[in-house]
Amino acid sequence: MFETVLVANRGEIAVRVIRTLRSMGVRSVAVFSDADADARHVREADTAVRIGPAPASESYLSVERLLEAAARTGAQAVHPGYGFLAENAAFARACAEAGLVFIGPPADAISLMGDKIRAKETVRAAGVPVVPGGRDPELADAARELGAPVLLKPSAGGGGKGMRLVRDLTRLEEEIAAARREARASFGDDTLLVERWIDRPRHIEIQVLADGHGNVVHLGERECSLQRRHQKIIEEAPSVLLDEGTRSAMGEAAVQAARSCGYRGAGTVEFIVPGTDPSSYYFMEMNTRLQVEHPVTELVTGLDLVEWQLRVAAGEPLAFAQEDVRLTGHAVEARICAEDPARGFLPSGGTVLRLREPQGDGIRTDSGLTEGTEVGSLYDPMLSKVIAYGPDRATALRKLRSALAETVTLGVQTNAGFLRRLLAHPAVVAGDLDTGLVEREVEGLVPTEVPEEVYEAAGAVRLDALTPGPGGWTDPFSVPSGWRIGGVRKPPAFHLRVQDPLEYTPRGTATVTDDRVSVTLDGVRHTFHRAADWLGRDGDAWHVRDHDPVAASLSRAAHAGADSLTAPMPGTVTVVKVAVGDEVTAGQSLLVVEAMKMEHVISAPHAGKVTELDVTPGSTVAMDQVLAVIAPHEEAEE
Q1: Any idea where the Biotin carboxylation domain is (predicted)?
Q2: Domain segments of the chain: what residues?
């Protein structure tokens, strides 16, 4: 076994790998950019090496700096985690050339399965059924031959990045261009493939484990059908769809896929499965790394997959055969992401002001967060994972809903409350899942109104801040009690804003502490976690800001008749298609803002002239920052 292992990653996966290294008595080395100098994975490792300044994402992609860090710290092996260089064959080869063990599959297997086209051809030759499709350079022709709907996918990576579902082939060229940009930004390779889209499919994957002695086993399946924008958000093991016969057949197909490329280590074979006929499954791709959702497999099998990655990389044979693998109980995982459901799930950001992550009987949280963590726009939006285990599916779902209600991440908007409501949806409870379920039901899972008690709590916090402490004489005009000469009392009102601004007068009773606020309205007591202007409960959070109606009125007057286009999320402007003075049409694409590897197109709200343009390609922008102003034709002519 290795004495020292360098973890070439960051965030929750680096913390996760370090935890197993510690339990095995292996020294861990973390790497960090300037932006992550005080991150949790840096503090939890035995030692840490700076690999570069911001922009931070580029530092973690520098093979030269990572190898230098390994040499400086005496590491014998490198664990790539997932993301960044985890599926980079050149990195695996560079490690070998530097005398380091790459804790993952051979570089040739990464290269083969990383090219989704070659992967499909290889597993088809091994007898595994595959989804019909085509690839570059005949991508557009293949899409038209397949007929709508089709799915565009990057050949070099997964995770939903760069994927586009195209139902209208008249927009094919535009969708291909957008998919290429996202693929290039996420994987450094804009090669695409196209596949026939199967309506209402289920996404089921098989975990495989192979050693260097010819042994390959599967560890059962994970149901990953609950997705949004092709990104998994809830995963569970086992799947309620599969019977023992189908599970065995799919498991054997996954084993054959792994053997076909000479696989070694932990990997995942992903299948698309028609929900009405689970026996008709198709190979989609193989992820040659540890998956985000691996904890659910660990909980139902009792195996530590990171430990077995290390043991296999160190040359040990698997200590068990296929017949020794047992699936016991049920596990469900929820991905906590920095995104705002109320704003169409756009990426969010900020500083973590208050953090509470659930732990306990049957609950596990994998996280890279601490209070004070700065969540920026350079990385994937996933912050942590909450996993629940129980003797059956109903128990695991109930535990996970409770754990999400206890999750507090104030200062950064997350999807925790949305996930809790999703897990209570009747179709999810019944196990009637497909990859389009979330998109169909999303409107009913995102509240449109801010509860009154949120404004009541925000008002109570402001009243408490204005109320002087005990002792000594108090000027009655300084106390917000509504006291006036003549005995007339007018309760104080506050101008507040969560979504739309309003004027609110507190009308209940309240108790305010440094980290909580409780209010009683109409006989019902509501308790919130609090930090600065943030309030949270049951996984939901509200940023209740003060609103200045005078300043807002002056701003509207300054741009009377025009529309200010603002940034929908913190991020980077990647494309600017217009200049000041240009005439634009309603709906015309003007700018592209990217955050957390996701693009958002800013379009003209109406026909008119660009009178202001405050950004250029590469500009970093904050949420709600003005990007451009479009004056209607009437005003421009005047």
Answers
A1: 1-443
A2: 4-103, 132-197, 201-445, 452-467+492-546, 560-637
d(CA 235, CA 387) in angstroms, rounded, equals 9
Which residues make Cβ contacts (< 8 Å) with residue 190, sequence separation at least 6? 154, 180, 181, 183, 184
Q: How far apart are the first and last CA of the chain?
A: 78
Q: Cα(412)–Cα(347) distance, rounded to whole angstroms?
A: 10
Q: Which architecture characterizes domain 132-197 according to CATH?
A: 2-Layer Sandwich (3.30)
Coil, strand or helix at 541: strand
Structure tokens at 421: 């409501």
- Tracing tokens 């690839």 back to the chain, one arrives at 135
Global pTM?
A: 0.85
Q: CB burial class (10 A; 0-12, 13-18, 19+) of residue 224? A: buried
pLDDT band at 474 (very low <50, low <70, confident <90, very high): low
Tell me what pLDDT residue 555 has. Answer: 61
**Confidence bin at 636 (pLDDT 50/70/90):** very low
If 0-12 CB within 10 Å is exposed, 13-18 middle and 19+ buried, where does residue 325 land?
middle
| CATH dotted code for 560-637 | 2.40.50.100
Is the CB of residue 261 less than 8 Å from the CB of residue 286?
A: yes
**pLDDT value at residue 487:** 61
Q: Which two tokens stand for residue 525?
A: 């007591």
Give me the CATH topology for the region 4-103: Rossmann fold (3.40.50)
Q: What are the backbone angles phi and psi of residue 166, rounded to the nearest 5°?
A: -115, 115
Label the pairing between strands 494-497 and 545-546. Answer: antiparallel
Residue 616 token pair: 């250029």
**pLDDT, average across residues 521-526:** 96
Closest CA to 333 of 369, 384, 377: 384
Domain 201-445 part of CATH 3.30.470.20: yes
pLDDT digits (tens, 9 = 90+) for 244-291: 999 999 999 999 999 999 999 999 999 999 888 888 899 989 999 999
| Residues ≥6 apart with Cβ < 8 Å to 123 | 130, 256, 257, 260, 283, 286
DSSP for 77-103?
A: EEE--SSTTTT-HHHHHHHHHTT-EES
φ, ψ at 278 (rounded to 5°): -60, -20
262 Cα distance to chain centroid? 31
Name which of 146, 139, 186, 149 is nearest 436 in CA terms: 149
Q: 626 - beta bridge partners?
A: 566
CA gap 110, 96 in Å, rounded: 14
Is the distance from CB of 460 to CB of 249 less than 8 angstroms? no
Q: Using an 8 Å Cβ cutoff, are 305 and 298 in contact?
A: yes
Residue 566, number of CB atoms within 10 A of its CB: 14
Q: What is the DSSP string of 21-71?
A: HHHTT-EEEEEEEGGGTT-HHHHHSSEEEEEE-SSHHHHTT-HHHHHHHHH
Let me know how long the chain is.
638
Beta bridge partners of 494: 504
| Pair of tokens at residue 568 | 């929908």
CA distance 105 to 89: 9
Q: Quote the CA–CA distance of 35 and 171 in Å, as a whole number.
A: 39
